[in-house]
Amino acid sequence: MTDIREHKQSAVQGSKFSLTGSTMALTDELVSLSLRPAIDVGPEPHRKPLSEAEVEMLANRLLDESTGAPLWIFAYGSLIWKPDFDAVESQHGAARGWHRSFCLQMTRWRGTRAQPGLMMALDRGGRCNGVVFRLADDDRLGQIRRLIRREVGTIEDAATVRWIPVATPHGLVRALVFWAGPKGERVSRKLPLETVAQVLARACGHMGSCAEYLYLTVKHLEERGIRDRNLWRLQKLVAAELVAIHGLNPAAGSH
Q1: 133: Cα within 13 Å, side-chain hemisphere
Q2: What are the φ/ψ torsions at residue 158 (nearest 5 degrees)?
Q3: Which of 151, 185, 222, 223 is the catalytic position?
Q4: How far apart are CA 60 and CA 54, in angstroms?
Q5: Is 56 tagged catalytic?
Q6: Any stretches that span the bilayer, and where are they (predicted)?
Q7: What phi and psi values does residue 40 have, to the nearest 5 degrees?
């Protein structure tokens, strides 16, 4: 662990990191400092994973609910930059009545039980600009299964899968979205962005760090011409946290 830390520090020795300006303050170099090895200890004991039968039941229900119409998936986070489906079309989409929120505590994947992280979900209110993907009609059931295995861990999580209207340049589409309106003891709503930034800058699990997740989301939104005001401010706050944690030299100007 010490060797990894020393290697990371030497990679940024003498570097200055801009916390202002129009370019991202959160950089590859800063994100690398948030990464560390972690062991996957498996699901929490009180959370029962979906069985294959339950996956099949949910997949068939969603297939029936798609009513044979084009199947759209609304992506607002990692599905934008790490999709797990075969898309034949994508468009900008706006989900009115929803907004991105790091409101779901996680102790696996990008966090641990010792240092929990926060996962992004959709919460009620506002507007979320993202991307809608139209799935290929071939093997629609199989693609839905893949999405469920990736996005839905337990029966309780299945309640966050819903159909929402999404505005596109060519009109409204009915799209499937994951992690919309989560409930339960893991949900913490309306956390100050400063508090969220403190968590994201420190949490890391076997799949990577929360800072990395934020960085990739903002980066790919920007590449598509989408700027989420809260995420943009949050990446600056996380960058500042990492600079402070690792005793680096912040620059006053832009890159």
Answers
A1: 20
A2: -60, -25
A3: 151
A4: 10
A5: no
A6: none
A7: -80, 110
